[in-house]
Automatic annotation (TrEMBL):
GO terms for molecular function: glycosyltransferase activity. The chain crosses the membrane at residues 68-89. This is Glycosyltransferase involved in cell wall bisynthesis. PANTHER family: GLYCOSYLTRANSFERASE. Keywords: Membrane, Transferase, Transmembrane, Transmembrane helix. The keyword Ribosomal protein does not apply. It comes from Christiangramia echinicola. Residues 197-354 form the Glycosyl transferase family domain.
Amino acid sequence: MRLAVFTHVIHKKYKDDYYAYSPYVREINLWIKNADKVDILAPLIEDHTPEKELKYIHRDLNFHSLPAFNLLSFSTVFKSIFIIPVIFLKVILAMRQADHFHIRCPGNIGLIACIAQVFFPQKPKSVKYAGNWDHKANQPWTYNLQKWILKNRILSNNIKVLVYGNWGSPNRNIQPFYTASFSEKDKAETLKDYSFPFEFIYVGNLVRGKGVFQCIDLVEEIKNMGFPCHLKIFGDGMLKDELEEYILKKDLCETVSLMGRKDINDLKVAYKAAHFVILLSKSEGWPKALAEGMWYGAIPISTRVSCVPWMLGNGKRGLLIDGENISLDVTLNKIKYLLRHPETMREMSRNSINWAQRFTLKKFERDIKKFL
């Protein structure tokens, strides 16, 4: 089988290998191991030494470089007028040669591939929609266009669209899906002692929209209610300096620690030690940090975005917070009740473990194979 992969993810070439964002490549390697020949169509940065990226592993892989573009300003839209036809032609040619298409959405390359696949109704296709599938969410028009094309059974035939969470859709194109991080050998009974001080962790990029400042504010409020607690923030990004100043200004150096970016082994240790994993993001696809924390029994506290309510069993496996009500008394009252009832916390922790540990890498690989 010849498999063509279409993605907006920026790649690097180092010597004779191609590298990209580690979690993405880790998953794509599971897709391409089932193929005899692989074509990757994506943007490329030539001759850059990879830092924490991973490389593709396949004996017969061809990379086809596509120019990156966006539609965020008049100048970039004007430039895209000349770039898009070139990309579209390359995508069409790759689809003609391929036995199966795998499209990564949402993204600009994914949008072009979504349009191009319409001309190949008989060929089997899979799409990984790694964003928020909630039709009520406020999202860019290009994202909504991709969703509309993929759901349309006239335009999209012989296709399986893998979306995060179960949205109860009767559309046969749409398949609820997930992402896995750990294997069977990582399973271990994690018995947490829900007593003071409570350990909170945030894992993710330090960028706007992820609610990192709100995480700090929330833990500060919990501390002010008389509950000894500590927040460890794992990750790196453009807000690092601002966060350092914010923590210093609020005199929270003893309460909040910036840990930097850590590898998965360090994160496993942190998840095992944590009582709570917290994410107050405005938008998510599959919030990997929540799922990983739940695997090790950390109770998730998250905004009600994307598939999070489904992940948290609508409150049976964690605390759901309305995005605009993070600082309201109702949120603090929920947390206060939980912190005063250790048995309730243990039950939530057990529920989190039982749910998260269903999604192993072996099951993930087996389920991917079904769509090829």
